[in-house]
């Protein structure tokens, strides 16, 4: 490689590397992910999503509390080690499956909630690999994070309305003021609602309230949008339930007990 | 019957119905109205604007993706005590009916009769 090519290559590598001030003996300082409620937790999930080759990712804070996760193909295969403050020692060496996503999120939140910077280091694994198709994917973690955080922070009136709506609605998607999206219901509608909800959040700047749309052709579903304290919901329900939707909204949000 | 008489007859069929406005969505113009109490032109114009936004606005376009027609035929907007119903005339007519009724009004009946009324009066207008 000629000298000018080597120089260009080195500059490219330097541009991709972490800035020196972000690296310490604890590891590389995680960049918080903006637009979400828990940016450090989102940053940790982002690291997992970026890890393709098999590695032990250790997340630690300045108090030396840590969790080490064996990650491969963007999936957590195992909780390799953790400090007592972060998780129960029963988790040490435990292989995980997608059903453990909520528990893993709680462990990671235990570390991210301390109002301290989080550092990450990546090391080669010294144990035999388990099957890469098992484990908890970054996608599983994001889905849990969206659902949990959206639900936790949702105003109780809207939460009551949506919980009651599950009796008759086909599907709905909700988006929080910070952009956390969660989807419930029939997969056929849910996927379309997910996209439409994000699109609607960008365009609909109405005041709080609900709006129901329908067609005189009764074959199709009815659609509602609900806006409440910065949350936006887009949902579908069958044409028979217009009255039910209106009375539930009125009982839970317009006229809370 | 004149359009004004049609609107008055429609409003009197539903107890507590306070306003019926016949509007042109393409121009945003109020064509005729019948109200329980004296009202201002500004209020009628505001109702017409609300109808345009609810039936043709960006959210209505998104809602249309889920309906069997491209755009919704009607929109229902409740508040604490009242329900606003915006009903479009069948394509290609550009008119709509805006109805303000009590929150517990029988929606299906209002929608069905509004549709009938629109088909009659838009035929007369055209």
Blueprint of the fold:
The complex is a heterodimer of chains A (about 260) and B (about 130).
Chain A: H1 3-16, E1 23-24, E2 27-29, H2 39-50, E3 55-61, E4 66-72, E5 75-82, E6 94-95, H3 101-112, E7 118-123, E8 136-137, H4 138-153, H5 156-165, E9 169-175, E10 181-185, H6 187-203, E11 209-214, E12 222-228, E13 231-237, H7 242-254
Antiparallel strand pairs in A: 1-2, 2-7, 3-4, 3-7, 4-5, 5-6, 5-8, 9-10, 9-13, 11-12, 12-13
Helix pairs in contact in A: 2-4, 3-4, 5-7
Chain B: H1 3-12, E1 19-24, E2 29-35, H2 41-56, H3 58-64, E3 74-78, E4 82-88, E5 95-102, H4 107-125
Antiparallel strand pairs in B: 1-2, 1-5, 3-4, 4-5
How would you describe what is shown here?
The complex is a heterodimer of chains A (257) and B (126). Chain A is 37% helix and 27% strand. The longest helix of chain A is centred in the last third of the chain and has 17 residues, at 187-203. The model of chain A has no long low-confidence stretch (mean pLDDT 82). In chain A, strands 1, 2, 3, 4, 5, 6, 7 and 8 form an 8-stranded antiparallel sheet that branches. In chain A, strands 10-9-13-12-11 form a 5-stranded antiparallel sheet, sandwiched between helices. Chain A has 7 helices and 13 strands. Chain A is elongated and about 70 Å long. Chain A is an alpha+beta fold. Chain B is an alpha+beta fold and 126 residues long. In chain B, 41% of the residues lie in helices and 26% in strands. Chain B is built from 4 helices and 5 strands; from the N terminus they run αββααβββα. Chain B has helices at residues 3-12, 41-56, 58-64, 107-125, and strands at residues 19-24, 29-35, 74-78, 82-88, 95-102. Chain B has a 5-stranded antiparallel sheet with strand order 2-1-5-4-3, with helices on both faces. In chain B, a hairpin with a 6-residue loop joins strand 4 and strand 5 (95-102). The longest helix of chain B is centred in the C-terminal third of the chain and has 19 residues, at 107-125. Chain B is globular, with a radius of gyration of 13 Å. Chain B starts with a helix and ends with a helix. The mean pLDDT of chain B is 91.
């Amino acid at each position: 490689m000629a000298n000018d090519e080597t120089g260009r290559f080195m500059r490219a590598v330097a541009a991709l590397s972490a800035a020196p001030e972000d690296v310490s003996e604890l590891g590389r300082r995680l960049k918080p992910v903006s637009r979400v409620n828990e940016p450090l937790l989102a940053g940790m999930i982002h690291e997992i999503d970026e890890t393709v080759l098999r590695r032990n990712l250790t997340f630690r804070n300045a108090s030396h509390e840590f969790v080490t996760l064996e990650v491969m193909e963007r999936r957590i295969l195992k909780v390799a080690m953790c400090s007592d403050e972060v998780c129960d020692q029963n988790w040490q060496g435990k292989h995980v499956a997608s059903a453990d996503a909520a528990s893993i999120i709680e462990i990671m939140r235990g570390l991210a909630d301390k109002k301290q910077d989080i550092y990450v280091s990546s090391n080669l694994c010294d144990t035999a690999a388990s099957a890469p198709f098992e484990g908890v994917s970054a996608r599983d973690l994001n889905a849990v994070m969206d659902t949990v955080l959206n639900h936790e922070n949702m105003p109780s009136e809207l939460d009551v309305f949506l919980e009651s709506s599950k009796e008759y609605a086909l599907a709905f998607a909700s988006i929080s003021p910070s952009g956390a999206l969660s989807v419930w219901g029939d997969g056929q509608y849910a996927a379309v609602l997910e996209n439409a909800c994000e699109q609607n959040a960008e365009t609909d700047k109405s005041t709080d309230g609900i709006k129901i749309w329908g067609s005189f052709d009764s074959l199709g579903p009815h659609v509602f949008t609900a806006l409440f304290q910065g949350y936006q919901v887009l949902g579908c329900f069958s044409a028979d339930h217009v009255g039910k939707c209106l009375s539930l909204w009125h009982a839970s949000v317009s006229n809370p007990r | 019957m004149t359009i004004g008489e049609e609107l008055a007859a429609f409003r009197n069929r539903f107890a507590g119905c306070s306003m019926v406005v016949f509007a042109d969505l393409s121009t945003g113009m109020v064509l005729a109205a019948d109200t329980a109490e004296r009202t201002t032109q500004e209020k009628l114009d505001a109702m017409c604007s609300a109808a345009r936004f609810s039936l043709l606005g960006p959210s209505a376009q998104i809602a249309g993706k889920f309906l069997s027609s491209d755009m919704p035929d009607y929109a229902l907007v409740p508040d604490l005590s009242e329900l606003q119903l915006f009903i479009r005339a069948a394509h290609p007519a550009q008119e709509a009916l805006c109805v303000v009724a009590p929150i517990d009004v029988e929606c299906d009946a209002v929608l069905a009769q509004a549709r009938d009324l629109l088909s009659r009066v838009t035929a007369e207008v055209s």
